[in-house]
Write a structure and sequence with these properties.
five-stranded antiparallel beta sheet; 14 helices; alpha+beta; 287 residues
Length: 287
């Protein structure tokens, strides 16, 4: 992905999201844009208009950490957006040259020890990479994500935007779609040379207007913890807290563990799901 274009589009979309009122600036005269002007961002960041315009055109090479921090404050970037801006600057400086050449990675297989760790978790647990490939899961997670596992190479991006079952599985499909694209956009900032991610984005952009529109928004996020709601075709609604942890022994992979509130209807539904998973009905091949 072209770094200059990524920088330009990211800064432009962030600027468009901040109104003068939100930035604490007076509104005078007629405005052609609802967001901030370049001159206003420059003033808030304490740099010249010419310098900020150069940065917004994509020239982040050589920019100091102090200037990046000032721009982040001016644009009111959250933690995920700040990290993304720093990674874009690192890419512009060539400081992430350790990234792999633009080629497909070798096929990945789950280590026995990692699978044992997943199986030891009593709640649904999965392993996902930056491209949102669903790489490994325990039995309960396979039963929970049986729709996603219905294809040989399960991927949350393809499932969300190309599989009609996603609109039933995610009660708030728009939220799920936004989060999926933000995760992919974040991964693109971490590794702009990921051939598999390039191909996935190209495929989804071609096949889904919903994906293409969201990809153009340049939103990013930190996928750490929260609550998600699902609607399983057998056990119904599942309201699950989740915690996501990076795997130190597996670069760019993360494990997510889901848990239900004790004594809740979701806890009962998970018990029912575990029973279903223990039968042949709980395997993707049987559906």
């Amino acid at each position: 992905m072209d770094n200059r274009a990524e920088v330009r589009d990211f800064l432009t979309t962030r600027r468009a999201k901040i109104t003068p009122e939100r930035a604490g600036l007076p509104v005078t005269g007629t405005r052609r844009v609802s967001g901030l002007r370049r001159s206003e961002v420059a003033a808030l960041a304490g740099v010249s208009v010419e310098y900020y315009a150069k940065l917004e055109r994509g020239s982040l090479a050589g920019v100091s950490a102090g200037v990046l921090d000032a721009i982040a404050r001016a644009l009111q970037l959250d933690d995920a957006e700040r990290a993304h801006l720093v990674r874009l600057a690192q890419a512009a400086n060539g400081s992430n040259a350790v990234l792999r050449p633009s080629r497909r990675p070798k096929p990945w297989s789950v280590r026995p020890g990692l699978q044992w760790a997943l199986d030891a978790v009593t709640s649904p647990a999965i392993v996902v990479n930056g491209r949102q490939d669903l790489l490994a899961a325990n039995t309960l997670a396979r039963a929970m994500y049986t729709d996603v596992f219905a294809v040989p190479e399960p991927n949350f991006g393809r499932f969300t935007f190309l599989d009609a079952a996603a609109h039933r599985f995610y009660p708030d499909w728009n939220l799920a779609a936004d989060m999926t694209v933000a995760n992919l956009r974040t991964a693109a900032g971490k590794d702009p040379h990921d051939k598999g991610l390039h191909d996935l984005v190209g495929e989804l952009s071609t096949r889904s207007d919903e994906f293409r529109r969201r990809w153009g928004a340049h939103n990013v996020r930190i996928h750490g913890a929260g609550v998600k709601t699902f609607r399983h075709h057998v056990v119904g609604e599942l309201i699950l807290a989740y915690e996501t942890m990076d795997l130190q022994a597996e670069a760019d992979l993360a494990m997510t563990v889901y848990a239900a509130e004790p004594g809740s209807a979701t806890a009962d539904a998970l018990a029912l799901l575990a029973s279903w998973a223990a039968t042949d009905a709980g395997t993707p091949a049987a559906r």
